[in-house]
Amino acid sequence: MRARIVRLALFVLGLATGATLAVRWVTRRAALITPPACAPLLLSPLRMAYRAPSRLLRFLEPKPDWTVLDLGCGNGAFTLPLARYVRRIHAVDVQPAMVAALRRRLCRAGLDNVVVHVAPATRLPFEAHTFDAVLMISVLPMLHDRSAALSEARRVLKPDGVLIVGEEWIEPEYVGWRTVMRWAESAGFTLRAHTSNPLCYTLKLVQRSEVR
Question: Where do the Methyltransferase type domain residues begin and end (predicted)?
Answer without folding.
Answer: 69-165
